[in-house]
Write a structure and sequence with these properties.
By secondary structure, the protein is mainly α. The chain has 4 helices and 2 strands; from the N terminus they run αβαααβ. The two termini are 20 Å apart.
Length: 105
């Protein structure tokens, strides 16, 4: 089975689908920009808040750290590989949560 089919099957009623998000979109507005990197740094160094830690985890390593901000900025300014700019649900085992997400449609 493909991963897409498994995601569809996992989200069919009556099962609950985890919140969806755009990887790297720390601000939660559905678009990845340098503001998202700043949001990650604010969260780390001045106690800012993030509604979806899974989205802020741009490299999907299970942690929100400086490397996530670097990944966002290197993609945005350097044309590197993005963190996976699509709406996803995170089935990777980690301790991050997503209190605020996008509709899984």
């Amino acid at each position: 089975m493909s991963a897409v089919l498994l995601l569809v099957l996992a989200c069919l009623p009556p099962l609950n689908c985890p919140p969806c998000f755009v990887r790297g979109d720390a601000s939660g507005n559905g678009v990845v920009t340098p503001v998202d990197a700043l949001g990650v740094l604010e969260y780390l160094f001045v106690g800012g808040s993030l509604g979806c830690l899974d989205a802020a985890d741009a490299n999907d390593d299970g942690r929100v750290d400086v490397s996530d901000a670097v990944r966002i900025l290197s993609w945005f300014y350097g044309g590197g590989h993005g963190p996976g700019w699509m709406i996803v649900s995170d089935f990777t085992p980690d301790t991050l949560d997503c209190a605020v997400g996008l509709p899984c449609e």
